[in-house]
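Re: How this chain folds, sequence and tokenised backbone to follow
How to read it: Take the token row as a discrete description of the fold.
Start of record: The labelled sequence and token lines come straight after this line.
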Amino acid sequence: MRYSLTRAAELAEASYTGRRHAQIGYQFKAAFSKNDVEAILLTDNTLLIPGSNTVMDYIRYNLRVQRLGKGRLRMTNVDGVSWHQGFLAHAKVVQDWLLANRYSPSFIIGHSLGAASAQILSSGYNIPAVAFAAPRPSRTKSLRKAARRCLCVNRSDDRVCNLPGAFFHLGEVRLCRPKIENPGLDHSMLHYRTSVEEGLSARSLPRNWPQ
């Protein structure tokens, strides 16, 4: 499957309002919400994963670099990678839902915390993904071939994309340098949609993914 970057950005923003949004309602297939994890599956098997909506998201996932007092989580079919344990825990909740319902995603679109999961699941399922405002989910610098199927679209003024500092992104990273910086607001999908259009005009972003 192949998506235009413009369409991917529209769906990433729409994922926060879910089925109620006009961009999603007409092609809605299934939705999931559990333990502060949300995901939406469209009829073409595109998986949408929005980012943090509550304080508990940060406590359970964003700030949970290690699993203190518990066994280390691993991702099925992905070997030799040391993961940010909170991001991996988030991705595994989505994966468990997919497996329980025998859903097979063909493309993944995520934003923020959802972009961390998109990178991990793209690698695990070996399918393309677009991750907007993507933090770094892996301590392992060397990338598996499958991981390169993910495109991370990050803004140069978005500090979240550089966190955690000792970790790395999975896949290809394209950095958008906005005409106007928005300190404190640069992480929202509204500003990322603007950056996508600017990047397409400047030809610094691919028009479609995979290319």
Notes: The two ends are 11 Å apart (CA to CA).
